């Protein structure tokens, strides 16, 4: 299945970019729900470089903007934990080059890997 979340642009002339901030929290909830139910889901946006073609294929009307294209399905391979850089490494304070206060500069110890599941896939 491919999910295509869209924004209805009621005031697009003001700032069309701000509509994304309404959609992506919902997309994040969708990704978490997919994960929790054993489904793999991958947000993609590269195809939106060809927005006109995407709109034509899907019949998207004027005033509606596709925000993402999200394939969803049952994974055939690895469904384990994903790798992410520590938050402390990618968080700036006060300004772009701001170093974190000492209290948050040291990341917490890593969470031990979950035991191998035997029943339904766990929420990771
Ligand atoms: C906003 C956004 C757009 C993305 N667009 C694409 C895309 O167009 N094509 C693609 O292969 N991956 C895209 N990705 C990356 C994948 O969604 C995914 O994060 C990546 O394959 C790494 O997998 P992981 O999140 O399970 O670690 C995008 C990610 C985000 C957050």
List keywords for this structure.
NADH Oxidase, 11% strand, binds flavin mononucleotide, two-stranded antiparallel sheet, alpha+beta, 124 residues
Architecture per CATH nomenclature, i.e. the level-2 architecture of the domain at 2-77 = 3-Layer(aba) Sandwich
Average pLDDT over all residues: 85
Largest sheet: 3 strands, antiparallel
Shape: flat
- What is the tally of beta strands? 5
Strand order of the largest sheet: 1-5-3
**Uncertain residue ranges:** none
Quick one: CATH superfamily of the domain at 2-77? NADH Oxidase
Radius of gyration: 19 Å
The portion of residues assigned to helices is: 25-40%
The topology string of helices and strands comes to EEHEHEEHH
User: Which ions and ligands are bound to the chains?
Assistant: flavin mononucleotide
Number of helices: 4
Q: What structural class is derived from the secondary structure elements?
A: alpha+beta
| Name of the top-level CATH class of the domain at 2-77 | Alpha Beta
- Per CATH, what is the topology of the domain at 2-77? NADH Oxidase
Report how far apart the termini are. Answer: 22 Å
- Percent range for β-strand residues: 5-15%
How would you sum up this structure, described in words?
The two termini are 22 Å apart. The strands form two sheets. A three-stranded antiparallel beta sheet has the order 1-5-3. Strands 2-4 form a two-stranded antiparallel sheet. It is built from four helices and five strands. It has a domain of 76 residues: 3-Layer(aba) Sandwich (NADH Oxidase). The radius of gyration is 19 Å and the shape is flat. By secondary structure, the chain is α+β, with helices and mostly antiparallel strands. The structure holds flavin mononucleotide (FMN). Flavin mononucleotide (FMN) binds next to loops.
């Amino acid at each position: 299945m491919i999910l295509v979340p869209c924004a209805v642009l009621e005031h697009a002339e003001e700032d069309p970019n701000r509509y994304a901030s309404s959609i992506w929290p919902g997309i994040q909830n969708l990704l978490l729900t997919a994960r929790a139910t054993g489904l793999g889901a991958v947000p993609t946006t590269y195809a939106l470089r060809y927005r006109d073609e995407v709109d034509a294929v899907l019949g998207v009307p004027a005033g509606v903007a596709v925000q993402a294209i999200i394939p969803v399905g049952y994974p055939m391979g690895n469904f384990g934990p994903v790798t992410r850089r520590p938050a402390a490494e990618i968080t700036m304070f006060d300004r772009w080059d701001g170093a974190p206060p000492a209290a948050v500069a040291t990341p917490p110890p890593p969470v031990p890997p979950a035991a191998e599941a035997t029943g339904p896939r766990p929420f990771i």
